[in-house]
Design a protein that fits this description.
Elements: E1 3-9, H1 24-32, E2 42-47, E3 70-74, H2 84-95, E4 99-103, H3 117-120, E5 123-124, E6 160-162, E7 164-165, E8 183-185, E9 192-193, E10 202-209, E11 216-223, E12 227-228, E13 231-232, E14 236-239, H4 247-250, H5 267-270, H6 272-284
Parallel strand pairs: 1-2, 1-3, 3-4, 4-14
Antiparallel strand pairs: 5-9, 6-8, 7-10, 10-11, 11-14, 12-13
């Protein structure tokens, strides 16, 4: 059976922002994948949050393994992107064994995840759940003055970065030939991810390097499912920025919201291996 994916933002549709239409290349790529018999490897439902009169999203509020196998949560809000019932639905889905790929960006973006302890604990913010390493609670990207920590500068939008997969090599970072994925799209101010205290089932699987300070920072954390109340929970993947998957970071000609002021790069366009690696990385999550 194909993997059923809910590709979900925490933003409302429309407006000058990073709504779901700015992830159309990811959606199209996933939908293009087939097995040796030409059958689809996944079914993708891509949507923005659509709150009802009570403020609840009708899909997230009732999220269940009956309908989806994985939630790819693009948390792009600053605290109001998920209602308490939405958060409860996501937690229930995880406890049922649903896999969650979670990503956000700099400062307090995606703050609504904090209220989902198994998920929000893997993401470090500016005002809540700060990085326990106080030396990291400072600006890394000093070029965009309006954005504060965490804001690791891995390169320009449209360029790629060299990542460091950590040993033992995780299957999420393995190319079909067994070698390690080496390139991710870059971004001027990536967020922070890490391992909550006591999360022995989790580990950092890849790091990046700031082009401003030369400092290493966590790119991806993977937490395998655990036995809980007689059931096995789903896997959680926490990623430092949604820009690894955005159209603009794969191809800057697709455009971006008007508030993006940083000059773009051309590395993704010039190096075919960069787009091949992020395609491969997207595919490994289907297992």
């Amino acid at each position: 059976m194909p993997t059923r994916i809910l590709l979900q933002t925490t933003l409302l549709s429309g407006g000058d922002d990073w709504a779901i239409e700015r992830f159309s290349m990811l959606e199209a790529y996933l939908k293009s994948l087939t097995d040796e018999n030409g059958k689809p490897l996944c079914e993708v439902t891509a949507r923005d949050r659509q709150p009802d009169a009570s403020g609840d999203d009708p899909v997230l509020n009732h999220l269940s393994r009956t309908d989806f196998d994985q939630l790819w949560l693009l948390a792009l809000d600053t605290g109001d992107g998920l209602s308490p019932n939405d958060q409860a639905g996501i937690l229930r889905f995880y406890e049922q064994g649903g896999g969650i790929f979670s990503t956000r960006d700099h400062q307090d973006m995606g703050l609504s995840m904090v209220a989902i302890p198994p998920l929000g604990g893997f993401h470090y913010f500016h005002t809540q759940n700060l990085d326990p390493d106080e030396s990291r609670c400072c600006e890394d990207d000093c070029e965009t003055k309006t954005i504060s920590f965490p804001n690791y500068h891995s390169g320009r939008n449209g360029d790629y970065q060299h990542i460091t997969p950590l040993e033992p090599l995780h299957d999420l970072l393995r190319r079909p030939d067994g070698s390690a994925i080496a390139l991710f799209p870059a971004h001027p101010h990536e967020g922070g991810v890490g391992i909550p205290e006591g999360a022995t089932h989790a580990r950092v699987i890849a790091t990046g390097t700031s082009k401003i300070t030369g400092r290493n920072f966590n790119l991806v954390v993977a937490a395998e499912g655990v036995e809980q109340n007689g059931h096995r929970t789903g896997r959680i993947v926490a990623q430092s920025t949604f820009h690894h998957l955005a159209d603009y970071n794969w191809d800057v000609s697709t455009g971006c919201p008007s508030f993006v002021a940083e000059p773009p790069g051309t590395g993704m366009k010039e190096n075919p291996q960069a787009i091949a690696d992020i395609h491969c990385y997207s595919t490994t999550h289907l297992g």
